[in-house]
Design goal:
Blueprint lengths: L18 H10 L4 E2 L18 E2 L1 H9 L2
Parallel strand pairs: 1-2
Length: 66
């Protein structure tokens, strides 16, 4: 699905190249961002907008429960 981001949250200061992925996750209402990238850990401490960050193993567990 094509998602256009209209707002740039700039939540990840340590690696701005990661921000488009967060912006699209927010715009699309994604369940979570699946990544091992350490820069995304900052999202766990940001109360709004809430973006869940999970590892691939956690994502596979979610899929197995569906």
């Amino acid at each position: 699905e094509l998602i256009t981001r209209f707002y740039r949250w700039n939540l990840i200061k340590s690696d701005p190249d990661d921000n488009p992925f967060v912006d699209v996750a927010i715009a699309s209402g994604a369940y979570a961002v699946v990544t091992f990238d350490r820069h995304f850990k900052v999202l766990k401490s940001i109360p709004f907008p809430k973006v869940q960050v999970i590892t691939l193993d956690e994502f596979m567990a979610v899929l197995s429960n569906i």
